[in-house]
């Protein structure tokens, strides 16, 4: 047994082997899982390249090796709804994809000696997503978003794109569309639609129509859904039965259209979520091994499970796996491919073969992880919040085996309010979280009321209560840690991005629990957000707050920009100047107001970044600035070290 005495170092300045550069270089975002190839056995996915300006490269696992399919400078990404997703499709050895730089569709023949993308669609103001292959008619079907001038909202539809690039609108009239899915025999098309002011996790409609001889659609009919029922992920079974996920029971569960074409039936009713909110296109949480067997993942109390569902009996059989989160799932006859992770496993591409035991790892978001002894493994906690509610969170304690904290001291804790706000935080290993815990910060990642993964009733807690319920749950989480002796009451921090930025600002403005805050492209002015927002979220506040103009005073009461006289905590702001979701003036107004009041404030503007930061240099710059800001404000900074960001109104 070693008698080594560890050095005593205060929380917040522990020497860490996890640098900001390692966070930027080590984490490769993985998304867009698909199956295809000439023999149908290839696995495709998107990998974000931070060192290449954040572009999405298409990769494929072909046989026994990984290869990059799309060359520089092609960026496989869609901007439909601004959040994108569903940016490519595979048909045998042919790939079709949307290039982010011009929003045009391209074709790539993987059998060519030197595969080179060939443009299909004409230049213009159209964007495409959720591509489907219409083999019977030799065309693509996709969601199209047609933009006009900057003063008008785009027009959304489902259209067909012929081999020559010509476009034919098949469905229009609703505000939004998604998930065009073609029947296995090519005879029919299913799709989803919804209208303002609903968001897709509030109410959508599932439609079905047969193709006419000329490729148009005959007599669309509603299958399921309403303004109060959210339908997700319509899919066809191999024998031609339309399946979908609905929250009609209060939980997103699996259903199917019966063979009579009139009735729908639930397949396995349970208090668990078989879907996630439609922020991006192409989400997949179930697939068919055969006509009589579904492979699915579902979320129970924030944790993912994998199972085999037999629709005939409703029997659900668990499938062993090492993960706590399964983000995407695709199913072939002989195997499952999924993007998944756990508290000690960063997001990775895994394959489970039906004929063998174990998991084969095909790609990892982080190639080299810190030693497991250096990783903070979160505890899933629940705690009482305002109004008798119970809130949920993951708590990551400080972790660094090379040091010990002074006896009797408690750590500073960063409370994270996730974005959305209709989103969900998961406990998959993230280097950025370990960046903080390895330096002696605790991290509380909160699934406040309004988060998904806990049923519709929990999700609807935020209805009319944004800036209240979410804030109360973050405040209660910090207080619960203090009461348990896990946090220093005088060094509580709140940090949030996008909608989580509003939660952060409201917590600092209307409560006195937190001492510091960090806002990443956060919302500060709700009325301004309505005025500048893109189409997808332009009516979201009617649900989260109340309909305008009658709610003008409520909007003002919830907007931190109108209450800067109550905000006295030092803050740091980060803002991409190309952000189309939360315009830069939202952050700039808060910074100017705090400067005028003499409150210490720092502001980092980032050229070429939008809503969510992708570039390696940006990730490094923001993390180092945020760490310096916290240490400087808590009197922990080494005065001899450099200052990666200027702090206005700093008096010492």
From TrEMBL:
Regions crossing the membrane: none
Highest taxon of the lineage: Bacteria
Residue ranges of every copy of the Peptidase S9 prolyl oligopeptidase catalytic domain listed in the record: 430-635
Family matches, as Gene3D superfamilies: alpha/beta hydrolase, TolB, C-terminal domain
Cited Pfam families: Peptidase_S9
PANTHER family the UniProt entry points to: PEPTIDASE S9 PROLYL OLIGOPEPTIDASE, PEPTIDASE S9 PROLYL OLIGOPEPTIDASE CATALYTIC DOMAIN-CONTAINING PROTEIN
Name under which the protein is recorded: Prolyl oligopeptidase family serine peptidase
Species in which this protein is naturally found: Duganella qianjiadongensis
């Amino acid at each position: 047994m070693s008698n080594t005495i560890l050095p005593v170092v205060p929380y917040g300045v522990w020497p860490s082997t996890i640098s900001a550069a390692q966070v930027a270089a080590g984490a490769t975002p993985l998304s867009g899982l698909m199956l295809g190839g000439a023999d149908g056995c290839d696995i495709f996915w998107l990998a974000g390249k931070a060192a290449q300006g954040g572009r999405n490269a298409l990769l494929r696992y072909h046989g026994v090796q990984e290869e990059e399919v799309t060359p520089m400078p092609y960026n496989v990404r869609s901007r439909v709804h601004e959040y994108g997703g569903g940016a490519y499709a595979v048909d045998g050895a042919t790939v079709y994809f949307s290039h982010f730089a011009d929003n045009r569709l391209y074709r790539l023949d993987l059998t060519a000696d030197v595969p080179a993308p060939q443009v299909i669609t004409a230049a213009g103001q159209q964007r495409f997503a959720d591509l489907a292959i219409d083999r019977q008619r030799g065309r693509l079907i996709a969601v199209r978003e047609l933009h006009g001038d900057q003063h008008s909202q785009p027009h959304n539809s489902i259209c067909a794109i012929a081999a020559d690039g010509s476009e034919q609108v098949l469905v229009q009239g609703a505000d939004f569309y998604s998930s065009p899915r073609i029947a296995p025999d090519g005879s029919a098309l299913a799709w989803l639609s919804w209208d303002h002011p609903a968001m897709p996790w509030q109410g959508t409609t599932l439609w079905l129509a047969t193709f006419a001889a000329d490729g148009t659609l005959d007599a669309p009919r509603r299958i399921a859904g309403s303004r109060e029922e959210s339908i997700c992920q319509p899919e066809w079974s191999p024998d031609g039965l339309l399946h979908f996920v609905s929250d009609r029971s209060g939980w997103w569960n699996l259903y199917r259209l019966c063979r009579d074409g009139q009735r729908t039936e639930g397949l396995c009713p349970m208090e668990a979520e078989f879907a996630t909110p439609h922020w991006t296109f192409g989400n997949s949480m179930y697939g068919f091994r055969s006509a009589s067997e579904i492979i699915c993942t579902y979320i129970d109390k924030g944790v993912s499970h994998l199972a085999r569902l037999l629709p005939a009996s409703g029997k659900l059989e668990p499938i062993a796996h090492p993960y706590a989160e399964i983000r995407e799932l695709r199913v072939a006859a002989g195997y499952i491919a999924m993007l998944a992770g756990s508290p000690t496993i960063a997001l990775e591409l895994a394959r489970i073969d039906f004929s063998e035991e174990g998991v084969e790892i095909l790609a990892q978001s982080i190639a080299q992880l810190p030693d497991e002894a250096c990783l903070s493994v979160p505890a899933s906690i629940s705690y009482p919040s305002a109004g008798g509610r119970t809130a949920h969170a993951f708590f990551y304690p400080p972790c660094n085996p090379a040091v010990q904290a002074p006896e009797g001291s408690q750590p500073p804790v960063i409370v994270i309010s996730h974005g959305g706000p209709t989103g969900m935080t998961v406990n998959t290993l993230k280097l950025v979280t370990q960046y903080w815990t390895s330096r002696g910060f605790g991290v509380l990642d909160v699934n406040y009321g309004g988060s998904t993964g806990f049923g519709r009733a929990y999700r609807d807690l935020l209805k009319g209560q944004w800036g209240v319920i979410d804030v109360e749950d973050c405040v209660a989480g910090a207080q619960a840690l203090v009461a348990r002796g896990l946090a220093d009451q005088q060094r509580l921090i709140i940090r949030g991005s996008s909608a989580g930025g509003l939660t952060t600002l409201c917590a600092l403005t209307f409560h006195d629990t937190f001492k510091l805050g960090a806002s990443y492209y956060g919302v500060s002015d709700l009325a301004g957000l309505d005025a500048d927002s893109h189409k997808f979220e332009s009516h979201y506040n009617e649900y989260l707050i109340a309909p305008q103009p009658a709610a003008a005073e409520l909007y003002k009461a919830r907007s931190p920009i109108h209450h800067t006289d109550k905000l006295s905590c030092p803050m740091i702001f980060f803002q991409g100047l190309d952000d189309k979701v939360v315009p830069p003036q939202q952050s700039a107004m808060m910074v100017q107001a705090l400067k005028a009041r003499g409150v210490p404030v720092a502001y980092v503007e980032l050229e070429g970044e939008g809503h969510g930061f992708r570039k390696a240099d940006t990730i490094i710059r923001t993390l180092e600035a945020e760490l310096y800001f916290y240490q400087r404000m808590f009197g922990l900074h080494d005065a001899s070290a450099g200052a990666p960001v200027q702090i206005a109104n700093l008096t010492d």
